[in-house]
Write a structure and sequence with these properties.
By secondary structure, the protein is of the alpha/beta class. The chain is 42% helix and 14% strand.
Length: 199
């Protein structure tokens, strides 16, 4: 399966946020790819990756607003490189309308008939809240600064320990109130050919 990944930085994308000549071989994975591996995705061939801030700003008719435009731009790029699936995470960062706009972008991408399937969504408030949930904590989406909470409670500030938290998580025990994470995992399970691993 050919995948195109997108996220906000090296925590989400690992080495894939760097030009190919600066990546380890094989590339160090980020949280997004680690989640896919944890879901048991077999034979993932990453054919491209894009930092959120570097998404090409394409014009669409009728015109669309920022985050809708970003999702559609990712879909076009993923389609152009022959990806079977676009996989992304965008932080909410306290912007209440961001989640609605990303979901609208996904809806429009599907309606426009682009080729790749979509595993995407918004991490509320940020992806570190997902890591806290994977570590078994509840009410993680209510943290205004989940990154600081993760550092204070677990000493986890670098990418490596965040990826390790994903790798060590039991996805069957994700708290019910981690709604954005559970939505993303459900979308991934529905779209991807997965083989469940124990734990």
């Amino acid at each position: 399966m050919k995948g195109f990944l997108a996220g906000e930085g090296p925590d989400e994308l690992g080495d894939r946020n760097e030009p190919p000549q600066y990546r380890a071989s094989p590339p160090d994975v980020g949280i997004v790819e680690a989640l896919l591996h944890k879901l048991g995705v077999a034979d993932l061939d990453v054919v491209g990756a894009r930092l959120w801030k570097s998404i090409h700003k394409l014009r669409f008719k009728p015109p669309v607003r920022g985050e809708v435009q970003n999702v559609l731009g990712l879909m076009v790029e993923a389609d152009e490189v022959g990806a079977d699936v676009l996989v992304f995470v965008r932080d909410q960062d306290g912007y209440a309308d961001r989640q609605d706009d990303v979901e609208e972008g996904i809806r429009q991408a599907v309606a426009r008939g682009y080729g790749p399937a979509i595993v995407g969504g918004v991490a509320v408030q940020e992806i570190e809240a997902w890591i806290l949930a994977l570590l078994g904590e509840r009410r993680t989406e209510g943290h205004a600064d989940a990154k600081a909470v993760l550092g204070d409670r677990h000493g986890t500030v670098e990418r490596g320990p965040k990826v390790a938290a994903v790798e060590g998580a039991d996805l069957t025990r994700v708290p019910e109130d981690a709604v954005s994470l559970r939505t993303w995992l459900g979308r991934a399970a529905a779209v991807l050919v997965v083989k469940r691993e124990p734990g």
